[in-house]
Design brief:
Layout lengths: L1 E4 L9 H5 L4 E3 L5 E3 L8 H10 L5 E4 L5
Antiparallel strand pairs: 1-4, 2-3
């Protein structure tokens, strides 16, 4: 699983950090930070974060072939 954020769309609502705090967080300067390759056990929370993002700025992709 690979996570990306389109920072041109991100509005900093922080709902992703509430849905999946081990993957998304807001830094001291107010910017969204994230783990690009989160562990598989976070999948359900990451999907919730994607669905809850009002700006639709988060994308979740499956890894490509090795």
């Amino acid at each position: 699983m690979h996570v990306t954020i389109d920072f041109d769309r991100c509005e900093g609502h922080g709902l992703c950090a509430l849905a999946a705090p081990a993957v998304f967080w807001i830094d001291d300067e107010g910017y969204t930070q994230f783990v690009a390759e989160p562990p598989e056990n976070e999948r359900d929370k990451v999907i919730s974060a994607v669905q809850e993002c009002p700006a639709r700025a988060i994308q979740l992709r499956s890894p490509g072939p090795a």
